Amino acid sequence: MAVNIRCLNYKIMCINSSLSELINTDRFMENNQPTFYEETRKDGISRKDFLKFCTTMAAFLGLEASGVGQIVKALQTKPRLPVIWFHFQECTCCSESFIRASHPIVANIVLDKISLDYQETLMAASGYQAEEAYKTVMAKFPGEYIVMVEGSIPTENEAYCCIGGRSAKAILEEAVANCKAVVAWGNCASAGCVQAASPNPTGAKPVHKVISGKPVINVQGCPPIADVMAGVVVHLLTFDRIPQLDELGRPKAFYSRRVHDTCYRRASFDAGLFVESFDDEGAKRGYCLYKMGCKGPVTYNSCGIIKWNDGVSYPIQSGHPCIGCSEEGFWDNGPFYQHLPDVKGFGIEVTADKIGLGLGIATAIGVAGHAVVTNIRKHREIENTPESGS
Amino acid sequence: MKSRSIPLREVYVWEMPVRIYHWVNALCITALCITGFVIGNPPALMRGTEAYYNYWFGTVRFIHFVSAFLFFFNFVFRTYWGFAGNEFSRWYNFIPYKRSQWKEIFDVIRVDILQVTHKQIDSIGHNSLAAFIYFITFLIFLLQCLTGFGMYSAMSSSFLPKMFAWFVPLMGGDMAVRQLHHILMWGFILFAMVHIYLVFYHDYVERRGITSSMIGGWKFIEEDVIDRHDNPEAKPKD
A132-144: per-residue pLDDT in tens? Predict the structure, then answer.
């Protein structure tokens, strides 16, 4: 509850701050941007808290001790990142996750500082003013601003997602043309999520399949962990380049290990101790949720390490199997409570094992039938009767 | 007492490396399928105990991985032997690129599968249909190695699994790879059923001890088949 109230306070504070700054459009006219540190201090955050934040971020990013100094220096000297944050086909859970970041500065960094320019959910401006805000960023900071995207883009018919009379695809293409890099927040923007699940009526596509020529960072998850989102932003700000990505475009610092390999219940997996149903003795003892359909073994994320809501817990710790939300096509690899997914095209609830068993029985029948037919048709050969004797 | 005398000659068909490959492969596939099933849907063997008392599931996985390495290197060796072995083990037997191979495939289907005609099939090693099926199983072997080691690469820093890591993003992630790995396992099971049946079938119908040819390497072949094999132009078939 306390956490919620705190988050709400931040949200209100942030919206107020956005409002005041947006009304004061002179900000966009200034070339001399305030640094992140200056703005943080202005908001009454102590230097000690600022340093604690930098240290936390360095730890999340897997930096060595000297990395803390680099982050401190960057946040003290570099002007804030100009950011345009779009919402396309999505549920805004990425934004919701972000504003619940464990460290207050994380919420600040995103809501007060970087997403100030254009963020459809949280900005105070609307209509013409809002359009003006992101157009100003594009004109003012060509090649410098970051485009952050929540949501997938419809391609079947672009009209499925329009903002201000223009399609998501057109808006994105225009914004991306002069940006520095693109951050795709969440599974929608990284892999299409539920909108791209079969049969994908809108032809929803992730950002990296719609645009080309710009680096795209896929910050996966549904939603991504708030601290991971902040970590990516801090990395962009500190090192002025995109973080090291895996083959699916996810930052390696957060997505190089499986939930399974960092799971505190892993010992139960190796010991062969499994929860058989949600209310059994195994569930009470905290056994492995593998047989309840846990997708931890096929999911790459830092849930087991960073956890959620100020490090309170994560799905498996709360007794629920991982649904694999940071993986492509996790909706189509269901059901959630079954480890082996259903095979498409065979009706509902048909797994590879059921099909395999059916084929196995069919093969056995075929083989038996063939054996019978052989004894009849090949009778002469088997009995060694001469061919001419017929 | 029934007896018969037919002109047969012994031919050394399966060399020692081919036979070793066959039985190692059979053992690996058996071990991999059994452990694979257990890994896919582990039985509830242990109840009401703590994790530090047991490691049976880890052991099952260990057997699966060791068998997989053995299976892989065995497969690599067989591929090499397809270029180094005798004429019956060479690669060109397995890919039907010649007209005569396709003709033999249809002959085998008519004679042995549908049993609509009776005639002799002139093969000493694999017949063309069997060889083609083996070629398909080799492709399944390859895919099974790609999917298996692809998944394994996430938990290993060894160079061999790392060589397969590229396959996972190609499929979109571990979820799809795991599903494919599971589906392909059924290919092995169905193949084994038909393969073992057909060995019995040939041994039963032809009575030339084909089963033991994979133990000793020698096959009993009709002399006229050998003659036609040695002088292909001498006499047209039938």
Answer: 888 888 898 898 8
- Identify whether B1 is part of a domain: no
Judge if A182 and A225 occupy the same domain. yes
Q: What is the CATH number of the domain that holds A274?
A: 4.10.480.10
Whole-angstrom distance, CA of residue A214 vs CA of residue B217: 61
pLDDT tens digits, residue range B64-117?
999 999 999 999 999 999 999 999 999 999 999 999 899 999 999 998 888 888
In a domain, A346, yes or no: no
Window 296-335 of A: residues touching B by CB (8 A cutoff) are 297-300, 324, 327-330, 333
- CA dist B139 to A244, B79, B147, Å? 34, 12, 12
Contact flag B186-A360 (C-beta cutoff 8 Å): yes
HSE-up of residue B213 (Cα within 13 Å, Cβ side):
21
Question: Is residue B127 within 8 Å of B102, Cβ to Cβ?
Answer: no
Q: Are residues A302 and A211 in the same domain?
A: no
Q: Are residues A154 and A39 in the same domain?
A: yes
Q: Name the domain count of chain A.
A: 3
The CATH number that applies at residue B166 is 1.20.950.20
Same domain for A276 and A249: no
CA nearest neighbour of A150 among A106, A198, A206, A203: A206
Task: Indicate whether this complex's ipTM tops 0.85.
Answer: yes
Residue A300: exposed, middle, or buried by beta-carbon count in 10 A (0-12, 13-18, 19+)? buried
CB contact under 8 A, A274 and B44: yes
User: Is the sign of the CA dihedral A390, B1, B2, B5 positive or negative?
Assistant: negative
Considering the domain architecture, whether residues A192 and A264 belong to the same structural domain is answered as no
Q: Let me know whether A212 and A319 are in one domain.
A: no
Within 8 A of A353 by CB-CB distance, chain B residues are 40-41, 182
Q: State the Cα–Cα distance between residues A213 and B148, nearest whole angstrom.
A: 33
A149-180 pLDDT, tens digit per residue, is: 999 999 999 999 998 889 999 999 999 999 99
Q: Amino acid identity, residue A387?
A: E
Query: Per the domain annotation, does B23 fall within a domain?
Result: yes
Q: Which residue has the tokens 């095979």?
A: A343
Within-domain flag for A347: no
User: Residue A267: which domain range?
Assistant: 258-341
Range of the domain at B98: 17-200
My answer on whether A165 and A195 are in the same domain is yes
Question: Residue A252 is encoded by which pair of tokens?
Answer: 């390696």
Residue B193 contacts A where some CB pair is shorter than 8 Å: yes
- Residues 75-104 on B with a CB inside 8 Å of A are none
Helices (H), chain A: 2-23, 26-29, 36-42, 47-60, 66-77, 93-98, 104-107, 127-140, 168-177, 186-191, 207-210, 226-239, 252-255, 266-271, 281-285, 352-377, 379-383
Instruction: Give the closest-approach CA distance of A221 to chain B in angstroms.
Output: 14
Please tell me the predicted confidence (pLDDT) of residue B235: 55
Residue B216 lies inside a defined structural domain of this protein: no
Whether B163 and chain A come into contact, CB under 8 Å, resolves to no
Q: How many domains does chain B have?
A: 1
